[in-house]
Design goal:
Blueprint: H1 3-12, H2 23-36, E1 39-40, H3 42-46, H4 54-62, H5 69-82, E2 87-94, E3 109-116, E4 119-123, E5 135-136, E6 143-145, E7 148-154, E8 160-164, E9 167-172, H6 183-191, E10 203-208, E11 211-216, E12 219-224, E13 227-232, H7 235-246
Antiparallel strand pairs: 1-10, 2-3, 2-9, 3-4, 4-5, 6-7, 7-8, 8-9, 10-11, 11-12, 12-13
């Protein structure tokens, strides 16, 4: 990744340079990334190739798209390293899907350990319940954040369990991995009939000043004037919502459940 690419990436997330490799900058970059680059699984649904690292940077910066956690966090790692931050890729396992406890695939999630101001911090720009700002890895007290309250607890075999608003969300391994270590699980996500992103629902989510706007299949949920607003979208409205809320221009629709116009009278 060149300095020109880094400058383009910073413009993509609305950050004006120059930047320094310190905690204040890291927190700003993480928040701006979450507000600018959506988590979205449309390409998984369409069966399109999914890349990581510099391939994901091209998708995010040049094509102005979002992506899944592997795409977003490896791209963010590329940017952070270019800016002078030491970064490690850490594998995680999801423990809750928002409705019930689950036991997700091994290495089914990824987070970053970033060194700044002499300490290790956890960052994540690819998860619905991720903190808005970095979490201090060594701190076992409750950590307040714009997205709620976080508690890091010690799990078995040196793992760390990340609890968000009282709900265990991620079991994180602390041994650094290489990007190639995530390729088999990415292949599973892209090809398995049990995959939640290729054979399941279409998701998109982006942090806003009011909270978050989210798309699950045909249902768009957002906060407006302090009120939760929920809309069920037909095909035209789905494409318009992708454009308006997530900056995604679709040349074809993903595979969606039947829309309002398709329901029997």
């Amino acid at each position: 990744m060149t300095m020109v690419d880094a400058a383009a990436y910073l413009r993509r997330i609305g950050v004006a340079g120059p930047v320094r490799a310190d905690l204040q900058t890291l927190a700003h970059l993480q928040e701006r990334h979450q507000k600018s680059v959506p988590f979205e699984t449309i390409d998984f649904n369409l069966g399109l190739p999914i890349g990581m690292g510099e391939e994901a940077v091209e998708k995010i910066v040049d094509r102005r798209r979002g992506g899944g956690c592997y795409e977003l966090n490896t791209a963010f790692a590329v940017l952070l390293r270019e800016l002078g931050f030491p970064v490690a890729l850490l594998p995680g396992r999801t423990l809750h899907n928002g409705q019930r406890q689950v036991l997700g695939a091994h290495s089914g999630h990824m987070m970053l350990r970033v060194e700044a101001d002499g300490e290790s911090w956890l960052t994540d720009v690819g998860f619905r319940w991720a903190s808005r700002h970095p979490l201090r890895l060594s701190d076992r007290r409750r950590q307040k954040d714009e997205n709620g309250e976080y508690l890091l607890t010690d799990g078995d075999e040196g793992d760390v369990v990340i609890v968000h608003n009282g709900v265990p969300r991620i079991r994180l391994e602390t041994r650094e991995r290489e990007i190639e270590d995530f390729v088999p699980t990415l292949w599973w996500f892209c090809t398995s009939p049990d995959s939640p992103v290729s054979a399941g629902s279409v998701w998109a989510s982006l942090v806003t000043d009011d909270g978050r706007v989210s798309l699950l299949d045909r249902t768009l949920t957002r906060v407006e004037n302090g009120q939760l607003v929920r809309e069920v979208l037909d095909d035209e409205a789905f494409a318009a919502a992708c454009r308006r809320w997530f900056g995604i221009e679709l040349d074809r629709l993903p595979h969606l459940p039947p829309g309002p116009a398709d329901e029997p009278a």
